[in-house]
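In this supplementary section we document a worked example of the pipeline. Step one takes a protein sequence of length 118 as its only input; no multiple sequence alignment statistics are reported here. Step two produces a three-dimensional model, which step three serialises into structure tokens for compact storage. The input and output of this example are shown verbatim.
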Amino acid sequence: MQGGKVLLLRNERDEWELPGGKLEVGEDPADCVVREITEESGWQVTAGPFLGCWQYAIGEGSHVVIVTYGCHVQSTNPPVVSHEHKQAGLFAPDAVLGLVMPDGYKRSIATWFSRLDS
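The serialised model returned by step three reads:
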């Protein structure tokens, strides 16, 4: 999150998603999130608390397990869009609800904003 907004990336399916990707062999999930955010946005971050875990069908017969963490951004630079996505955007909590994206992401984002507010 930067400036009270969450970074989301538009994928090839025209869905918004949190930055992330495949876990490398022997890699800790929190370390994977940090690496993937840097690769996909150019941002340096530190991983915060675990937010959720859920399964998502990305296509017929193709499922992935999504593990989300709250992260603290160490940069004030705008995100850079990698070759893996079409667009990057920073969204306020109320804007997230109307986006085309899996509900699991919406739950994780709401949880993170709630923790930051308390």
